[in-house]
């Protein structure tokens, strides 16, 4: 009886102790949770305040910088980590931005995130974008620097093609387009880069099959290349020849196949070489040849016009006393009377043995007195 009671007492005592311990633990847990919540709330508030101060300060600095620097948007457009996400809603414009960010292969270290233009599929997509940009331009009335963005894109694509080292019809088409656009823009530096690789590498190593339906524009672009060597490069001796680089011109022309030499473009080049290789130039034949050429041909040939006009005026002044104004305009390749008058007034005085004898009175819309007979003593 006592033993039972003693055990019950012990058990009751233990149960009370255990329950009290549990109650204390639960109370401690509640208190800890409350403290943790307060601590977390405090920490979060502190973090948010610190972040907001940092963000607001940074945003304030950026806004001040924007106000003081107009180039901010251009130079820092890629610093926004959400930039690509923001642009997804722009549709076609997003695709354009993708290509506008493409860099030059030659400056690859600066543009590590740009599209790899050495990949054929990327090249074709970029080429399509360039063609779409060209379609937006009025090529008949081109203003200065209008084609600069197109030329820059074509240069990037050319660098990718050269770096990849492949030779195929697509690469040839790109370099032909680049040559045409450079001509339109009268950008002779880009023209030379395009033509030289096109002629000496792509055309030289691509397998052409004559008399087929294959797209073969070699005659046209070899013509431009030779015109550049003839008319753009300064001649070594003007008194003997007006050809800029006669050795290179003759080497390339003589290396052409009979198939290419029989093309009308090469017949034109042959006639021009013959004319330019005799000094002074036959101005009458040259003016007739010049009339029949394409606008692209004229752009390159105009580089030699100052020399040709100078030689022609010298010959005419020695050979004639007077000539119809229209004939002189035609032979000097000057379109209107006012331009002819200004040209004569500027250049007569530079001719050998020229005397200052009422130049303005000698020029009328009907005729020009090229030289005045000397009075007999």
TrEMBL record:
<protein>
    <submittedName>
        <fullName>Uncharacterized protein</fullName>
    </submittedName>
</protein>
<feature type="region of interest" description="Disordered">
    <location>
        <begin position="1"/>
        <end position="97"/>
    </location>
</feature>
<feature type="compositionally biased region" description="Low complexity">
    <location>
        <begin position="1"/>
        <end position="47"/>
    </location>
</feature>
<feature type="compositionally biased region" description="Polar residues">
    <location>
        <begin position="49"/>
        <end position="66"/>
    </location>
</feature>
